[in-house]
Amino acid sequence: MSWGQAATQAPANPNGDFLVANPPNDGISSLSWSPTGNFLVATAWDGDVYCYEVANNGQAMPKASTKHEAPVLCSSWSSDGASVFTGGCDNIAKKWDLASGQATQIAQHDGAIRHMAWIEQVGLLVTGSWDRTLKYWDTRQPNPALQVQLPERCYALDVTHPLLVVGCAERQIQIFNLSNPQVPYKQLLSPLKYQTRCVATFPDRSGYLVGSIEGRVAVQHVEDNLQSKNFTFKCHREGTQDIYAVNSISFHPTFGTFVTAGADGNFNFWDKDSKQRLKNMTKCSAPISCGNFNRDGTIYAYAVSYDWSKGGDNPLSNTPNNIYLHAVNETEVKPRPAKSGIGRR
């Protein structure tokens, strides 16, 4: 993909990536790509949801929008790319039909819906809430198909069927095998000492990554006989004093390497198998609140947007909210031979 000189050179964009026109007006909470085409959905704290179409030249055109009555925290696409699911602080999830523009309520919790995922293999939407429940929804029915009690509020969630991992408050980790979703396959504490911010399941389903507010990632395997492969590494830090949250982790769909994005304004590409950083990008002027690869891994979308980690009176709270599209170079994400790299520290 050749995007020429289309990228802005604003201070918020030191990597020269393509700036998406008409971004949300408030903090950007999630970015989700369609599984069938280059359509990107962004959700925001003002309740707005936007859908953009990304052309081959990198031009992103706003296509449609919808709204919740409270901050929207998460989004997920249906497997056919026809609908988008959104949830947030109004305690409901909606299904937004892109062809008709209609958004209808399809889920309800007693607290904010923090994360969700469409599970194509079983035709269900899973929602994780601050009400300490996990619910599975047949979107044609008003009541959940299944409800599971969590030990704490849901802070993070990811699925690679049949592996589902939920990161909860108080460092609780719940691992589910979706062949038996009623009970956790394993329950444990995060190996990281501080609050879980994000999780990402391995493409091969053998494990998961955990990112925390302490600028550290844990590489974890599910089965006991693989525990020797577990390790943690530091990232999104400057020296010993400036430590930033890992806000987002996403696996590359082709190579199985991954990207982390943090409150320091950096996004970096990593290879867990060779234990090394593949590419260190240049720091942006504000936190990266979320990010995601498109379906074939040729574009990485990320939001430079205040993540509220420093409170409402921080100068960064007035930062413009922007979405950038990074044209992924294969050298940034292709695995490399092992060397002394990101091992346990």
Automatic annotation (TrEMBL):
Residues 1-12 have a biased composition (Polar residues). Keywords: Repeat, WD repeat. Residues 1-21 are annotated as: Disordered. InterPro entries: WD40/YVTN_repeat-like_dom_sf (IPR015943), WD40_repeat_dom_sf (IPR036322), WD40_rpt (IPR001680). WD repeats lie at residues 65-106, 106-147, 246-280. SUPFAM superfamilies: WD40 repeat-like. PROSITE patterns: WD_REPEATS_2 (PS50082), WD_REPEATS_REGION (PS50294). SMART domains: WD40 (SM00320). This is Uncharacterized protein.
